[in-house]
Amino acid sequence: MLSVQQLHVKGRRDDLLPPTSLRARRGELLLVTGERQDQRTALALTISGRMKPTGGRISWDRSERTKSLRLASALVDSPNVNEPEQHLSVRDLVTEDLALVPRRYRGALLSKPWLKVNRFEDIADLWTEQLPPDRRMELLTSLALANPHTDLLVVDSPDRHSAHAADWLPRLEELAYDGGRPLAVVATV
Questions:
Q1: Phi, psi of 134 (to 5 degrees)
Q2: pLDDT, tens digit only, all 189 positions of the chain
Q3: What gap in Å lies between CA 177 and CA 183, rounded to an integer?
Q4: How far apart are CA 41 and CA 147, in angstroms?
């Protein structure tokens, strides 16, 4: 379970993230609103263990170690952080992302078989900027889940690609409520 208590991040002039508290358990989807994009991204980075908070407490499964949080979490599509570059084809994006998945005794996963098994062959030759919002969300979350240690999925501003929640919300619900691999899913909107 992700537990956040009075987490905040100071910016240069004002709070980048005002004091925020939340809880997210495996098998739950939590949508957290932020007034500005920088607040959303600061929250996503902080609750995924990628940014150090100025104050407050954060824990994953009762551990306050940042390393534990970072190992259990995946940050998805964070603007100017890890969103796909527009000049990449889907095939290149998959190759790049799979190379970063920890593989203890084997080499990196290969993109061609991964695309086939995960049913993305139809979009493999498209540029990432050409992807419809629902397929983009499906692709990016599937890549995040290529790491078998991911239990917390943090999605940064999925609504920026489509104002229609039907383009991204069903996928997040599906992942959170999956009986085979229930995840704690947090989306900043």
A1: -70, -40
A2: 999 999 999 988 889 999 999 999 999 999 999 999 999 999 999 999 999 999 999 999 999 999 999 999 999 999 999 999 988 999 999 999 999 888 765 666 789 999 999 999 999 999 999 999 999 999 999 999 999 999 999 999 999 988 899 999 999 999 999 989 999 999 999
A3: 7
A4: 22
- Token pair for residue 74? 């995946």
What phi and psi values does residue 22 have, to the nearest 5 degrees? -165, 165
Distance (Å) of CA 94 to CA 24, 28, 136, 176? 28, 27, 12, 23
Q: Give me the residue label for tokens 């501003």.
A: 157
The domain that holds 57 is classified in CATH as 3.40.50.300
For residue 28, what are the domain limits?
2-188
Provide the residue count of the chain. Answer: 189
Check: CB of residue 91 under 8 Å from CB of residue 125: yes
Model confidence, pTM: 0.92
Report which of 162, 170, 176 is spatially closest to residue 77, judged by C-alpha positions.
162
Q: Count of domains in the chain?
A: 1
Cα–Cα distance for residue pair 186/165, rounded to 1 Å: 15
Tell me if 19 sits within 8 A of 58, measured CB to CB.
Answer: no
Q: How is residue 65 written in tokens?
A: 């170690």
Q: Cα separation of 108 and 153, whole Å?
A: 22
